[in-house]
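User: Predict the complex.
Assistant: Input components as received:
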Amino acid sequence: MIIASLRDLASTDQCRTLVVKVGSALLVDQGGNPREEWLTRLVAEIASMRARGQRVVIVSSGAIALGAARLGLERGGRASLADAQAAASVGQIGLARLWDGLLAQHDLNAAQILVTLGDMEERSRYLNASSTLSRLLDCGAVPVVNENDSVATEEIRFGDNDRLAARVAQAAGADAVILLSDIDGLMDRDPADPAAQLVQAVHGVTDDIRAMATSRSASGMGSGGMASKIQAAEIAERAGIALAIINGTQDTPISSAIKNEIGTLFLPTRSDRARRSWLGGRIAAAGSLTVDEGCIAALAKGASLLAAGITKVEGTFERGELVSIVDGDGCAIAQGLTEYDAVSCAKLCGKRHDEQAEILGHAPRSAVIHRDQMVLL
Ligand code: GLU
């Protein structure tokens, strides 16, 4: 049974495993201290989910904000990458202690996992993280996941825990993700506009939905905002995972949102098989291939990407790396693992199959990206 309403998030049948993402602005007050009373109530909610048989993974931000306060760093530790790395290093210890202490009050074991973008992007490392999560959940522990910010670099990082939460949900085989926000959910226009209305259900993220999100983060403490929540919803919906954005500022945010059905629920649009869903959720493409209209139509029908349909090659990439396939306006329509490096792609660009052997000096592969290694977005 698939999840069709916020109430289903409380059902052990429909929602056996779920990821709860807690952002910095909810976890840490303006003075840089943990909001322990609020967290105590949230953990009580998590404990009741566990008690009714649901498996819960927490994705927790707050390391940078907590550490910055301890080290006296300006701009909440986000003035430079070096500051963020140092702050996270100090803050993560406190964060782990906090979750451990709060969960222990309910006889639950906290299990810390720190991941980098590469841990989720590289298939073997992703499978490794996935089996660790699964074993921990089988053992009854509550994994508490964060990005390993003290070693993440600017180019190779999630930067926001919203997309990380969607990726972790895939790795944990979760049915749903709950993103705790500082507003009720996605509003159909700027939340400051008095006419703004809450969007309660989204059946597939479209350009109209993306346009509703502004990347503004109300507190300035986290780095997410609504834009990264929509990106997380896109990763989740393609993987067959429901994603809810609810207001975390209440005392018992999860049960209140479920009881009053206030929040935005993004319903899954398809359920790709495990490997394909991992591929579709990958974030860091090494380059892009622009394709023509005929090629876009062929891809939509399930064809592989042929060199003849490529009009432009950008980026530096090796064979086997992730590249995005974009239309003439630069909008990503698919992504996949390329059979050729960037230099060869540029040589083959626009060429028919029978012209390729001479250019390459050897027999060409059947496609630049085989359909089994590609996911439409
Ligand atoms: N991983 C960061 C931290 O622990 C937060 C990322 C975000 O703001 O979403 O502070």
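The chain has a mean pLDDT of 92.
Let me know if you want any component modeled separately.
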